[in-house]
Specification:
Strands 3, 6, 7, 8, 9, 10, 11 and 12 form an eight-stranded mixed sheet that branches. The chain has a six-stranded mixed sheet with strand order 16-14-15-27-31-28, sandwiched between helices. It is α+β, with helices and mostly antiparallel strands. The N and C termini lie far apart (about 70 Å). Helix content is about 25%, strand content about 20%. It is globular, with a radius of gyration of 25 Å. The longest helix has 17 residues, at about 240-255. Bound molecules: sulfoacetic acid and manganese (II) ion. Sulfoacetic acid binds near residues 235, 243 and 332.
């Protein structure tokens, strides 16, 4: 019974109702929190209201405790630096599990564990894991409150660092909590860093600035929509709204309910004539997704505005158009490589109110990372807290160091971000980092062909030698680590939604900014010049730009891609679109091997598309 009193930890008697705010009456919610309290045995409970006062108090507490370093308030107001444990710096894919009832439902690309046995294991780990700590109840909304595509969740965590990041990354607090009534489904997510402050006999254990545990588990139970995360304080492992909910659990919810949870940025383009286009784009990591989301077009008259940089939830509306929201409220971006030249918009976004994790500290208490400025400072404190000079022979910032910043500080934020119905998508783009084969841009012949393109997204692991395809890291739909169920069923779901939308479905395109010439240099300038490709895509949406049928898709006809003013001769332009039949047929063999692992779950449409591609290449 949720209203009966429970005992917190070993000593603190707790009032009934677990310190819950008055307006919380949902018994299932109170029961769940009571169960977690009994299991994890925290010393206090704090319900996060999401207020400025709460932010101020919590950051002050963490500064006192040495968890956060306040940055120079003139250079970087309201901002802090956190340094993680050196062993807790990234997502842990080998410790990430999909615990579906049937192993086949997790599919060959996920780590699977039986839900009962995983539950039993987790109960042991979480037993007393919050002793001596505060348990935070973090209610959050993914997307605008009450929107038709939005969802709510509650994260329980013993990490105040996670609380602060959740407040930036989501719409967090009592307004989100108030969304939950007896009829509203919500996703329960439990997180513990796995480092109690008091042992079983009540003795205090020394704390650390970045508590964590060498044992880590990131577990998803798609059928019950639960998330359990243990042992890590790092972003993707600890901010459970993000990859765990918005992608892994979300993708499975989408399968059940007829929508899509995707690893995509959302961009609004406005033509010189004032017409708006909305595009969503999926790229594997390290392909410049955040840069594209904050693109500054070089094509005269075109405007680009940001709606999201990482996650998109897509749902057909009553008119059959695919609508998209960014369910997040902040950016959790990679710092290194972000600078005035590569991404000036991101640089102005992080002017203040930002939590930096694992970047370097300058002598005047500001942040620095590789690629931020042309000139490297002569002295820094590196991400581990050690003195650093340019000849230290190691990076000053961790390569996966991050900034967490409210999206509303982004100078190119589109008003549409606030739109609870989402934006109607005109185009979906898939991209990878390919030195060979994949043309600068190609339009899919059909939705089904587009799904095939998405399913075959890959990046080259090794620089391809001339005349070979480099070793491919497959990352279908950029969702390989994030799809909460069998990837073949996921492709089937995409196919079914396309069928349902028919002529209303957005057009699908493939892009590749990374093609190299024989000397190994990039042939396409990239960055702001990518707006030329986006312009062509927008013109294709309106059936204005001319396209030519190629073996791998519809490519720009002579003169239809705007390359005016670019230092790009016809030979290079030709090479950007070159399709070498032999190399492509080799790649088809690799695709067949890749598809084979899905056995008879593979939709037959993809087999058909592969056969058609081989046919076009051999013609
Ligand atoms: O997974 S995180 O959200 O921590 C960052 C990423 O890998 O995209
Ligand atoms: Mn991502």
């Amino acid at each position: 019974n949720a209203d009966s009193s429970v005992t917190l930890g070993q000593k603190v008697p707790v009032t009934t109702r677990l310190n819950a705010p008055e307006f919380v009456t949902n018994r299932a919610l109170l029961r769940w929190i009571s169960d977690i309290v009994v299991l994890t045995k925290p010393e206090n409970i704090h319900w996060c209201d999401g207020s400025d006062a709460e932010w101020t108090a919590l950051t002050a507490e963490l500064v006192t405790g040495g968890v956060l370093i306040p940055l120079n308030s003139e250079l970087r107001p309201g901002s802090f630096l956190a340094r993680s444990d050196p062993d807790d710096v990234a997502r842990v894919e080998d410790r990430t599990f999909i615990c579906s009832v049937n192993e086949a439902d997790a599919g060959p690309t996920n780590n699977w564990r039986d839900p009962d046995s995983m539950n039993a294991e987790l109960k042991v780990l979480f037993d007393g894991s919050m002793r001596g700590r505060t348990l935070y109840v973090v209610p959050f909304s993914m997307g605008p409150f009450g929107g038709p595509i939005s969802q709510v969740g509650i994260q329980i965590t013993d990490s105040p660092y996670a609380v602060l990041n959740m407040r930036i990354m989501t719409r967090m607090g009592f307004d989100a909590l108030a969304q939950i009534d007896d009829k509203t489904p919500w996703v329960p997510a439990v997180h513990s860093v796995g480092q109690p402050l008091v042992d079983e006999s009540g003795l205090r254990i020394a704390d650390s600035a970045w508590p964590s545990n060498s044992t880590k588990y990131i577990c998803h139970f798609p059928e019950t929509r639960e998330i359990w995360s243990y042992g890590s304080g790092y972003g993707g492992n600890a901010l459970l709204s993000k990859k765990c909910f918005a992608l892994r659990i979300g993708s499975y919810m989408g399968l059940q309910e007829g929508w899509l949870a995707e690893h995509m940025l959302i961009l609004k383009l406005t033509s010189p004539e004032g017409k708006a286009y909305h595009v969503a784009a999926a790229f594997p990591s390290a392909c410049g997704k955040t840069n594209l989301a904050m693109l500054r077009p070089t094509v005269p008259g075109w405007k680009a505005e940001t709606i999201g940089d990482d996650i998109a939830w897509l749902r057909p509306d009553a008119d059959g158009r695919l609508r998209a929201i960014n369910p997040e409220a902040g950016f959790f971006g990679v710092a290194p490589g972000t600078g005035e030249i590569t991404n000036p918009v991101a640089m102005s976004t992080v002017w203040g109110n930002t939590i930096f994790t694992n970047v370097a500290l300058t002598d005047d208490n500001d942040v620095w990372w590789e690629g931020m400025t042309e000139k490297t400072p002569s002295h820094l404190i590196d991400w581990r807290g050690e003195d650093w000079t340019p000849d230290s022979g190691r990076p000053a910032a961790h390569p996966n160091s991050r900034f967490t910043v409210p999206i509303q500080q982004c100078p190119t934020l589109a008003d549409d971000w606030f739109e609870s119905a989402g934006v109607p998508l005109d185009a979906i783009i898939f991209g990878g980092r390919r030195a060979t084969n994949v043309p600068l841009v190609a339009e899919a012949f059909s939705w089904q062909h587009g799904v095939f393109i998405g399913a075959t997204v890959s990046s080259e692991k090794t620089a391809a030698a001339e005349g070979t395809v480099g070793e491919l890291r497959r990352d279908p739909f950029a969702m390989l680590p994030f799809c909460g169920y069998n990837m073949a069923d996921y492709w089937g779901h995409w196919l079914a939604l396309g069928e349902k939308m028919g002529a209303n479905a957005p057009k699908i395109f493939q892009v590749n900014w990374f093609r190299k010439d024989d000397d190994g240099s990039f042939m396409w300038p990239g960055f702001g010049e990518n707006s030329r490709v986006l312009e062509w895509i927008a013109r294709r949406v309106d059936d204005e730009a001319h396209a030519t049928i190629g073996a791998v898709g519809l490519v720009p006809s002579q003169g239809s891609l705007n390359v005016e003013g670019l230092d790009l001769n016809d030979e290079v332009l030709g090479k950007l679109f070159e399709v070498n039949e032999k190399l492509w047929l080799d790649e088809c063999d690799l695709t067949e091997e890749f598809f084979d692992q899905f056995g008879d779950r593979l939709p037959s449409e993809l087999t058909t598309e592969l056969a058609d591609l081989r046919g076009r290449l051999s013609a």
